[in-house]
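To the wet lab folks,

You asked to see what we're planning to order before we commit. Fair enough. Below is the target structure as tokens, and below that is the sequence we designed to fit it. If anything looks off to you, flag it before the synthesis order goes out.
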């Protein structure tokens, strides 16, 4: 059972995206499909993300040249499981790349081991405890978690993490609405999820 507010936000986000006319939609995911996906990939969708996908699955269009993701909308129904796992793993793998090549180290992990392999092992251990992020579109993510909703959408590129929406509804406006204009001075998202909020 998802919360009323989560259901409202997800449905409104789907409506906003549909209004842009940029994407077609397949039928939304069923409860049975959600159960299979969550079991297979080991997370639970946040309420608004789940409601968004229950309204309809956005269909990918052919990628533009040089686009990072050939299929930015995760195809939870019939996508390649390895591709979905790669997209799910993108935030953690990005941080590990920064640890290995850019000297990144989170202060909450204690002292950085001098040995590079030991540093990666320690970072991987800590990242395994970080809340799971679930791809919405390409490298834009929401935290997992049944019973939660309204989180800011985060854009993840290694340890370069920025806000891309106050919530899922605002994200659809920021990412896809060509008439969006400038950002309002009151636009002030606040990430609440442990670890990832420290990177924003």
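Sequence we intend to order:
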């Amino acid at each position: 059972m998802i919360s009323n507010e989560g259901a409202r936000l997800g449905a409104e986000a789907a409506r906003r995206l549909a209004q842009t006319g940029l994407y077609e939609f397949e039928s939304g995911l069923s409860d049975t499909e959600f159960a299979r996906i969550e079991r297979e990939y080991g997370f639970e969708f946040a309420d608004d993300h789940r409601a968004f996908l229950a309204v309809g699955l956005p269909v990918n269009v052919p990628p533009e040249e040089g686009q990072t993701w050939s299929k930015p909308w995760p195809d939870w129904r019939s996508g390649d499981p390895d591709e979905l796992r790669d997209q799910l793993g993108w935030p953690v793998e990005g941080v590990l790349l920064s640890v290995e090549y850019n000297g990144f180290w989170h202060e909450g992990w204690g002292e950085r081991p001098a040995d590079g392999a030991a540093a990666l092992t320690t970072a991987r251990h800590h990242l395994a405890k970080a809340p799971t992020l679930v791809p919405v579109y390409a490298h834009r993510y929401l935290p997992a978690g049944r019973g939660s909703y309204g989180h800011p959408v985060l854009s993840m590129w290694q340890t370069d993490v920025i806000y891309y929406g106050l919530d899922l509804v605002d994200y659809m406006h920021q990412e896809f609405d060509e008439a969006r204009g400038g950002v309002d001075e009151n636009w002030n998202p606040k990430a609440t999820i442990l670890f990832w909020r420290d990177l924003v």
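Structural context that might help your review: The longest helix spans residues 81-102. Residues 4-198 form one domain.

Thanks,
Computational group
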